Amino acid sequence: METKDKLIIRALNGExxxxxxxxxxxxxxxxxxxxxxxxxxxxxxxxxxxxxxxATEVTLQPIRKYSFDAAILFADILLVPQALGAKLWFVTGExxxxxxxxxxxDFDLLDDIENIDHVLSPIxxxxxxxxxxxxxxxxxxGFAGAPxxxxxYMIAGRGTPxxxxxxxxxxxxxxxxxxxxNKITHATIHYLSKQIDAGAEVIKIFDSWAGSLKGxxxxxxxxxxxxxxxxxxxxxxxxxxxxxxxxxxxxxxxxKYANATAVDxxxxxxxxxxxxxxxxxQKITCVQGNLDQKLLVSGGQTLIDETKRIVKTLSNGPHxxxxxxxxxxxxxxDNVTKMIKAVRE
Length: 345
Ligand code: CP3
Description:
Elements: H1 7-12, H2 33-42, H3 45-49, H4 52-66, E1 70-72, H5 79-83, E2 88-91, E3 95-98, H6 104-108, H7 117-133, E4 139-145, H8 147-156, H9 164-172, H10 174-198, E5 202-207, H11 216-236, E6 241-246, H12 251-261, E7 265-267, H13 274-281, E8 286-291, H14 295-298, H15 300-313, E9 319-323, H16 333-344
Parallel strand pairs: 1-4, 4-5, 5-6, 6-7, 7-8, 8-9
Antiparallel strand pairs: 2-3
Helix pairs in contact: 2-4, 4-7, 7-10, 8-9, 8-10, 9-10, 10-11, 11-12, 12-13, 15-16
The protein binds coproporphyrinogen III.
């Protein structure tokens, strides 16, 4: 099947479809026993990310099991900092840890963007394997973190509830903060371009912590870097489809983001009123979302009702069905089957 005929691409081209295509954030993950088995074969999470055979295998597992309309490359947004020379490790039960960037000296120790492929080339290999192994109708999505979200981890050295260390650095050392945002922006343009060269048909930019940027900061550090990424990539790949996810933005923020970045689709989290998205956001762009991922833990009739409500509410414009955020390890795999059935029937 040609890329342009795939359901996800048709929705991204602004087409209103009879049934929305469906995929899930973190669809390859710890809620699946087969994922856990392959992960332990790899040894740990990062070894899995850098092993093209096994990363391909875990990407394909949810496609075989559920026939999602899209497969998302198995990797992580924190591989870019690692490729730039930050130390990165994962603490079981807690999450990522990185060496921190808080001074000019820390920043100067980062590697040149020209060198990141030494670390990232296995990821491009995974993309190209997926491109040849995926079922014909499945869309291949590549991704990267947005500069602000990646910077919050690089500055704090870990995930933080309020992104305070990064917000503080904007004030205490704007020069280093801006250098860092710029560097991540240009590394990301390179990284995403290489994924497109390897066969990614869509790319998604995850700005998971966009919600902590208020007022002018949202324009400067969420919208602006993503706009540059979209513009630079489209200069070389005018037809590539791009999904943006400024998670936690205000309603007005989502609208501004859609208009300014000109992404083909905006992903919305579960806190966004679906009816508002249908009335306002869908007028400008395709909308992806926004089932509360907790419903895949609790299941039952509420899962079915909520799934159908979202499909119906967004049925008058281009829509890709997804969750508001990633599926959690305690989700029941049978609930995913029920959700997909409710979307497609
Ligand atoms: O969606 C997918 O299935 C594709 C793969 C993917 C992963 N991470 C795999 C992963 C994607 C797109 C990401 C993005 C990512 N990574 C984001 C942005 C999206 C979001 O969730 O907000 C962020 C902030 C990260 C950073 C990160 N990676 C954190 C905070 C954690 C730990 C949290 C946790 O669930 O343990 C990770 C680890 C991670 N990334 C896992 C997976 C499947 C779990 C690793 C494991 O197997 O233990």
